[in-house]
Each structure stands twice: as structure tokens, then as C-alpha cells.
Amino acid sequence: MRRSRHAPDSFRAISLSFNAEETPETATTVKPNYTQLLAKNFPENGWVFLTGDSDNILKLTRAIGYTFKKKDEYTFIHPSALIVLDQDGQIIKYVYGSFIPGDVDLALAEAAKGTPASSIHRLLAFCFSANPRQNQQVLAYFKMGTAAILLIGGLWFLLFLRQKKSDQPKPRP
Predict the structure, then answer these.
(1) DSSP readout, 125-160?
(2) Nearest C-alpha neighbor of 108 from the set 128, 87, 138, 78
(3) Range 81-86 contact pairs with CB under 8 angstroms and sequence separation of 24 or more
(4) Cα–Cα distance between 107 and 158 in angstroms, integer?
């Protein structure tokens, strides 16, 4: 299965552990669990796994606008996100949720050009929480809003056609 149209050596991936208890040795141990999912030609140094102390983890996550919350010793609540940087380290795009190859390819292409872009996934992640009942309510509002816009647009169009018909000269007998 094709994951990306970009050459594996044209970008680097960095994973950061939020758990200050994890060490570089922990990162070395877990790295093969993830890199085995990659294409065989992906360079070994193409994906780096980082750990750090609490202060440095917080400094980095705040600098990139990423939030997480520690629930218990081993559980962290956080969005699933890729943060794509250009060669100068400028944030180009946030890719949220499941990482669809087309979204990742687009983000990598934008990073290669150095062009920042917004992400609809961030808006949707903001609008749709993990609470299914709340999601249904938000979706119901979207449906009502869409119906109202279509109704108003349809009425406006009918009035426009009616006005245009009345503006036409009437044929003489």
C-alpha cells in the first residue's frame, strides 16, 4: 500500500514522549515497534524518538501550541496530531486525527514550499468533542443552519426570477 508519494529520505519524523519518567533507553526499546510499520527503504535515522524532563517537555509543547493532560501515572489525554515544519523550523501545518496519506502528502508539499496552511481537522476537532451526545447536538445545529441557508437562498432565487419576469416587456396585441 502506498503511504506517501514523498521519498522517505525527503523528511524526518520526531516523536516526543510526554512522560518525564521515560528515558532515552525507553525510546530505544519502543522505536522498533513503530518503525517496523514503515516502508523497508525508510532511513533508520528518519524517525527520532525523544524524551525529556517535565520542564523541557512543557517548554516544547507550549512553543508549538500542543496541549496534553496527565490523567494518571501512565495515561495522557492529548490530540493525535502531526506538526509539520519547514526546513527553517516554522510550523507549516497541523494534521489532526487519523493521518490520511493525502493530508500528510499535502502537508509535506507545503513544508517543502515553506507555505503555512490551515487545517480543517483542527476546526472539526474543536467543534466535535469526544462526547457523542454533544456531537449529535452540534451536528443538528449544522443541519438546521444549512437548511435555513438553503431555504433563504431558494426564496431569494425565486423572488429574483419573479422580479426578472415582471421586468420583461409585455407583448402587445
Answers:
(1) HHHS-S-HHHHHHHHHHHHHHHHHHHHHHHHHHHHH
(2) 87
(3) 82/107, 84/108, 84/110, 84/111, 85/111, 86/111, 86/112, 86/114
(4) 43
What is the rounded CA–CA span in Å between residue 13 and residue 158?
55
Residue 127: count of CB within 10 angstroms of its CB: 13
Q: pLDDT tens digits for 39-78?
A: 777 777 888 899 999 999 999 999 988 888 888 877 888 8
CB 97 within 8 A of CB 72: no
pTM over 0.90: no
29-54 exposure pattern, b = at least 16 Cβ within 10 A, e = fewer: eeeeeeeeeeeeebeeeebebebbee
Domains in the chain: boundaries: 8-127, 129-167
**Cα 162 from Cα 156, distance rounded (Å):** 10
| Contact (CB, 8 A) for 42 and 8 | yes
